């Protein structure tokens, strides 16, 4: 009863939540007090529908979407499909206790695997091979200051946000927001954000012609589900019977690897650079760029006539790949660019890349 | 004994044997055929192809011949190799272990023993899958140092390399290229590395991670 009352009441106060946090807290408290008055709150909720969703800026939307990852807990079935027809799904457990976020992703399609994440630590169990891969994600701190608003972040300069009505996903009412690119270097996103929590319950990657290239959604979702962090932790730490493989990558810099970008792509900033082995004898340098929503990886490795036989562009869903041979004074290189961006963006990156003199 | 063996390698029959579709005399004939080296290699390659089609992670094992050799040696050390045949053969066990009129013929025991190699090899295959070089270093698969996988990779090269370079226009067409395309382990490796880095997005810490963890390894 109380929860229902709170939900409806907060829905009746569009837009107030983020801008006037304290006021909202007060009102939320009021709603708690008035928890019994479900009928009244429900009536307010009904009138709200005709008013439409709250108008928020790009920055406000991003803050709201990010905050949702601090939801205490949820369990759901997540489905990802691409325009090429590929369909994947997974069972998801999410729990957040204090500063610790944990997730368990049990793949329901393809090779069996379960992925655990505790903040930045990621472990992927591959039961067929009896192997567990251990890796450290780039800090969730790519946008660490997003939540401490006031930071000017570039994302808002390259996308516009417009609310596009409301929908229902996995049984939850959601606000639909369209994040549209201001130029042709990136794709647009249509996001379904659960009304109460802001959780992204569905998202679509949309190209300039408005075609959906890829979409991901919860087909079924239970918020505030009984997920226990210690249980997940136990599962994650139990590597018995598995061979533990640590990701062998070392942080490096493009400068020390001898690479530079003579012309970049507007909005895409360098994030990180790694060197990782691809075979006992060779390794590849990965240079990562992001505009906040889309990510591009540039992979550079010495050219190998045997293996690097096909230059060109390919795409599957929103993910595009471009390969090119780069001949320089110092030798031949094989460049692979991968990203959830239009092919033109990859082309610009690949052609903008050069060896430092 | 080899003189009795049908030297002609019938791949259709071998495939049917692999799928457990043969019974009785057919199965016996197929098992006789299996005595040839060529058939043994073919059997291994077929299994490897099947494994790789199911999961690229299984491509990492190229040590079956070594395993088989060891197994052979161990079996020969043991006094009665045929005793373990029925126990280890769930599918064709009946045919082999049926109290046959030719029970006393030594040749039959050899054939049965061979069948057991095959069966155990099939089982051993998945065991080796967990012991061999592993998917984290998936790129190694392509350049596999041992002869066996290299041979298979070249077998796979036809569809495998053609597929990744799907014309851009095709990407937006709902074609059934979901599972067959991008069977290039080297590119898969880079895609995986990219996903790892792209996990964090302004859409929320979880959103990108969920997408990538769900998408990874399937639907390529």
Overall description:
The complex is a heterodimer of chains A (357) and B (220). With 357 residues, chain A is an alpha+beta fold. Chain A has 3 domains: 2-49; 58-237, Lipoprotein localisation LolA/LolB/LppX (outer membrane lipoprotein receptor (LolB), chain A); 250-355, Phosphorylase Kinase, domain 1. Chain A is 22% helix and 43% strand. In chain A, a hairpin with a 2-residue loop joins strand 18 and strand 19. In chain A, helix 1 runs antiparallel to helix 3 (21-33). Mean pLDDT of chain A is 78; it is low at 1-51 and 140-152. With 220 residues, chain B is mostly helical. Chain B has 2 domains: 2-136, no CATH class; 176-220. In chain B, 61% of the residues lie in helices and 0% in strands. Chain B is built from 12 helices and no strands. Chain B has helices at residues 11-18, 24-33, 37-54, 64-77, 84-88, 93-97, 106-131, 139-142, 147-162, 168-171, 185-198, 205-215. In chain B, helix 1 (11-18) crosses helix 3 and helix 4 (64-77) crosses helix 7 (106-131). Chain B is elongated. The relative contact order of chain B is 0.11. Mean pLDDT of chain B is 60; it is low at 1-7, 83-94 and 126-183. Chains A and B meet through helix 5, strand 1, strand 2, strand 3 and strand 5 of A and helix 7, helix 8, helix 10, helix 11 and helix 12 of B.
Shape of chain B: elongated
Beta-strand share of residues of chain B = under 5%
Query: At the first level of CATH, what is the class of the largest domain in chain A?
Result: Mainly Beta
Number of DSSP helical runs of chain B: 12
Q: Provide the CATH topology of the largest domain in chain A.
A: outer membrane lipoprotein receptor (LolB), chain A
Radius of gyration of chain A (Å): 23 Å
Averaging pLDDT over every residue of chain B, what do you get?
Answer: 60
Q: How many domains is the backbone of chain A divided into?
A: 3
Estimate nothing, just give the exact number of structural domains of chain B: 2
Q: What's the name of the CATH homologous superfamily of the largest domain in chain A?
A: Lipoprotein localisation LolA/LolB/LppX
Tell me the span between the first and last alpha carbons of chain B. Answer: 47 Å
């Amino acid at each position: 009863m109380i929860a229902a009352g709170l939900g409806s009441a907060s829905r009746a106060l569009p837009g107030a939540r983020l801008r006037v946090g304290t006021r909202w807290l007060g009102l939320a408290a009021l709603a708690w007090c008035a928890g019994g008055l479900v009928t009244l709150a429900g009536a307010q909720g009904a009138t709200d529908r005709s008013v439409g969703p709250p108008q928020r800026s790009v920055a406000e939307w991003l803050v709201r979407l990010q905050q949702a990852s601090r939801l205490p807990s949820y369990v759901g079935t997540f489905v990802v499909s691409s325009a090429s027809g590929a369909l994947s799904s997974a069972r998801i457990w999410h729990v957040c206790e204090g500063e610790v976020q944990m997730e368990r992703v049990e793949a329901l399609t393809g090779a069996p695997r379960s992925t655990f994440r505790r903040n930045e630590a990621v472990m992927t169990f591959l039961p067929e091979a009896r192997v567990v891969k251990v890796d450290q994600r780039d800090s969730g701190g790519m946008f660490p200051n997003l939540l401490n608003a006031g930071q000017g972040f570039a994302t808002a300069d390259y996308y516009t946000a417009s609310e596009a009505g409301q929908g229902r996903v996995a049984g939850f009412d959601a606000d639909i927001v369209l994040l549209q690119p201001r130029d042709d270097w990136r794709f647009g996103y249509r996001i379904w954000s659960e009304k109460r929590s802001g959780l992204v319950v569905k998202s679509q990657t949309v190209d300039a012609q408005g075609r959906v290239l890829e979409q991901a959604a919860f087909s079924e979702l239970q918020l505030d589900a009984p997920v226990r962090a210690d249980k997940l932790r136990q599962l994650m730490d139990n590597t018995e019977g598995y061979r533990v493989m640590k990701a062998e990558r070392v942080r490096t810099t493009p400068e020390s690897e001898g690479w530079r970008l003579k012309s970049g792509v507007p909005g895409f900033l360098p994030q990180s650079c790694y060197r990782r082995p691809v075979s006992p004898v060779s390794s590849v340098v990965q240079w990562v760029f992001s505009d906040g929503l889309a990510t591009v990886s540039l992979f550079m490795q010495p050219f190998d006539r045997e293996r690097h036989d096909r230059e060109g562009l390919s795409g599957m869903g929103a993910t595009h790949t471009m390969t090119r041979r780069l001949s320089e004074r110092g030798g031949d290189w094989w460049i692979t660019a991968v990203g959830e961006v239009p092919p033109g963006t990859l082309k610009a990156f690949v052609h903008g890349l050069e060896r430092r003199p | 004994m080899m003189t009795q063996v049908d030297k002609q390698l019938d791949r259709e029959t071998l495939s049917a044997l692999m799928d457990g579709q043969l019974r009785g005399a057919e199965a016996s004939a197929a098992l006789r055929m299996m005595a040839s080296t060529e058939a043994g290699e073919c059997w291994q390659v077929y299994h490897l192809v099947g494994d790789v089609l199911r999961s690229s992670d299984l491509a990492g094992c190229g040590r079956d011949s070594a395993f088989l050799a060891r197994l052979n040696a161990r079996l020969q050390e043991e006094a009665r190799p045929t005793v373990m045949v029925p126990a280890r053969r769930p599918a064709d066990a009946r045919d082999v272990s049926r109290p046959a009129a030719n029970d006393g013929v030594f040749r039959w025991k050899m054939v049965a023993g061979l069948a057991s190699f095959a069966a155990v090899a099939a089982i051993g295959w998945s065991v080796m899958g967990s012991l061999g070089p592993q998917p984290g270093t998936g790129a190694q698969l392509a350049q596999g140092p041992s002869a066996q996988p290299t041979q298979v990779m070249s077998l796979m090269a036809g569809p495998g390399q053609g597929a990744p370079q799907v014309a851009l226009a095709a990407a937006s067409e709902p074609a059934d290229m979901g599972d067959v395309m991008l069977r290039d382990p080297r590119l898969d490796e880079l895609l995986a590395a990219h996903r790892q880095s792209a996990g964090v997005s302004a859409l929320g810490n979880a959103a990108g991670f969920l997408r990538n963890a769900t998408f990874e390894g399937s639907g390529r």
